Hints:
alpha/beta; 7-stranded mixed beta sheet; two-stranded parallel sheet
Amino acid sequence: xxxGAMKLAIGSxxxxxxxxxxxxxxxxxxxxxxxxASNHLxxxxxxxxxxxxxxxxxFIAKAxxxxxxxxxxxxxxxxFKGVGQLPVDRSGARGAGEAAINSGIQVLxxxxxxxxxxxxxxxxDGRLYRGKPGGLARVALASGAPVIPxxxxxxxxxxxxxxxxxxxSVRPGxxxxxxxxFSRYHGMEGDRFILRSVTDEVMYEIMKLSGxxxxxxxxTAAKRQIAEEAKRQAELEKSERAEREAAEKALQDxxxxxxx
Length: 260
């Protein structure tokens, strides 16, 4: 009931403002468990996708979103619960990965839809990155639920980094592929080669649906590379600026015109 109220409060304005389009909605089963494996372009992906589905879909979120103190913390917790986010405790020996797997299996055992982003984090540049096999594949093989590839289109353009207001001129979309059956691998979730194969097959289908350029590294590694390059560039610019200032000062000390 709460999910329905939040979906009406959030989903309806989203659909009205952005008019998102969807293809392949018939590939979502009317009942029974299924895993929705999507690319991840924007924070808004977890809102646009549920808004366009008739059935509730559960994603996972950091437990901190549900335990923050004060009025703001309570409102945040209510919001994430209302939009179908499931708290995952990242403490413990295996951390978030194991918690996410167990949570996903529990959702599917109840016959519900479970949403997951195989890349593990948002794409830093709009390209599709290598899927992490520990979550998606293990949940799929342990549960036996079909995996439905999903491609979010242009959601990163709705509110680009650094922009406060969303761009209502952007019309995002969703493409939903046909269910993938991995029952042939049931009971083999301990085989890392099988996990890799399952994950790569799903990522290939997402790539076909999204039209994204595929990069065979993890998005987390790409983000580190981008951050390191930005730091290197900033240090280079700082060094060049210091050299220019030193050269200008040397000219001034000699009595010559600066910049000559």
